[in-house]
Design goal:
Keywords: Nucleus. GO terms for molecular function: DNA-binding transcription factor activity; transcription cis-regulatory region binding. It is found in: Nucleus. This protein is an all-alpha fold and about 425 residues long. The chain folds into 2 domains: about 150 residues, no CATH class; about 140 residues. It is built from 18 helices and 4 strands. The strands form 2 sheets. The chain has a two-stranded antiparallel ribbon. Helix 5 packs antiparallel against helix 6. It is globular and about 65 Å long. The termini are far apart. The relative contact order is 0.08.
């Protein structure tokens, strides 16, 4: 189904607004569409009038959730291009409104947000079922983007343990269309958005990734050669994915773990290569300073994508140190041997989080912060990391308190939200 009636929107009775006058942002008219408007009109996708409420939700999505999805996309596909395309495509519009309304509800800013969210989500799913039959561009590409947005809608308040079923559908779609990290355009942007959540799911559940990182089409030899923050982020995510996948394989095959010294060393060397390459460039260096009343040294990056990259780097170090198969010491001695290293990386993660980076970094810092908390024995540090996790959910509406609860149970603490 290529075109739906203009009446399928958020259900608001607000007056219609001309797309050219939509109050989406001061620079909305400059947003580049994925295809020229004339091409979309030839395909029967002329811009539809927006209600003022529709425009408000598109603007909210552009400013918040869309930015999170664009963490490693300097072209801002979801926060800018997709919002422009939503004026042409009722499927994208319904998915965006659903996601924005739910996020506003979860942060306590919109009392009836879930009613609007559910209505538009149901509309989006109905339209998406029809769209899945399309193989022609741009309809298939828009359908994949809508699938990614709907997946984000589900994940806003779901724990990482519950993401499996939501990711199944997205990856089924992506594999049919052979989407990977170098597909280009909307599909590449969507791939990296779901890849981040796929890695989280793998780490929490110790499950193998649906798409092997070797098939992500990422160059891990010439790391840092392009000098682009988005590329660096995709590269460190791919390395983290390889580590998560290796852990899942070792958990499923215990004897293999005993023979995994060479595999572990290869991953360690790859991580060292990323660190050396990025550090040599200098453009991802942070500003460090002490703040009164703050426990950790604050580590501030000028861009959220850089902050997120280094948090993933430190998380990868923690995971590799924790599973080093070459350790021949007993458990207590082995822990004491690496405790200082683990806590160093944990404090780096918390120092970055303490700087309150962009929301795109904060929603992707839940797992790094959780593993940082696992490394602490000091009560003050434990309290600090738990508060950092809780603030993510309170400020942004993205599920994070479940990971704080996991830490409380691990520490033997009682805490009621």
């Amino acid at each position: 189904m290529r075109c739906q009636s203009a009446g399928q929107n958020s259900g608001s009775g607000a007056d219609a607004v001309s797309p050219s006058l939509s109050p989406l942002s001061p620079g909305f008219s400059e947003w580049p569409p994925a295809l020229p408007s004339q091409s979309l009109q030839l395909l029967g996708m002329s811009p539809k009038p927006l209600t003022s409420e529709d425009a408000r939700f598109l603007r909210l999505f552009s400013a918040e959730v869309g930015q999170w999805m664009d963490l490693s996309d300097l072209s801002q596909t979801f926060s800018r291009k997709i919002c422009r395309l939503a004026m042409h495509d009722p499927l994208l519009k319904a998915a965006i409104i659903a996601c924005a309304a739910k996020q506003q509800y979860l942060t306590g800013r919109l009392f009836d947000g879930m009613l609007i969210a559910r209505k538009n989500y149901n509309t989006a799913i109905s339209l998406l079922i029809d769209r899945l039959q399309e193989s022609e561009q741009p309809f298939a590409g828009f359908g994949f983007a809508a699938t990614v947005i709907c997946s984000c809608y589900e994940m806003l308040d779901a724990t990482g343990r519950d993401w499996q079923k939501h990711l199944d559908g997205v990856f089924s779609f992506s594999q049919v269309r052979s989407v990977n990290g170098s597909s280009g355009g909307i599909e590449q942007a969507g791939f990296w958005s779901i890849a981040r959540q796929e890695v989280v799911c793998s780490i929490i559940n110790k499950s193998r990734l649906r798409l092997d990182p070797d098939l992500w089409a990422v160059d891990l030899v010439r790391i840092g050669q392009e000098g682009c923050e988005d590329l660096m982020n995709n590269q460190i995510l791919t390395i983290l994915a390889k580590v998560a996948n290796a852990i899942a394989h070792w958990e499923a095959d215990k004897p293999r773990k005993l023979r995994a010294v060479d595999e572990w060393k290869s991953l360690w060397d790859l991580l060292n290569h990323w660190e050396r390459s990025v550090t040599a460039k200098g453009f991802m260096d942070p500003v460090l300073y002490k703040e009164d009343g703050q426990l950790f040294t604050t580590i501030w990056f000028t861009r959220g994508v850089c902050a997120s990259s280094w948090q993933m780097f430190h998380l990868t170090r923690i995971l590799l140190l924790s599973i080093d198969p070459s350790q021949t010491l007993d458990c207590v001695a082995a822990f004491r041997n690496i405790e200082g290293k683990l806590q160093y990386h944990a404090r780096q993660i918390c120092g970055i989080a303490q700087s309150k980076p962009e929301g795109s970094c904060r929603v992707n810092s839940v797992q790094p912060l959780h593993y940082a908390g696992c490394c602490f024995s000091n009560t003050d540090e434990r309290n600090a990391v738990a508060l950092l996790l809780e603030s993510i959910e309170e400020d942004l509406g993205w599920a994070a308190k479940y990971r704080a609860n996991d830490l409380y149970r691990q520490w033997g603490w009682r805490r009621d939200f």
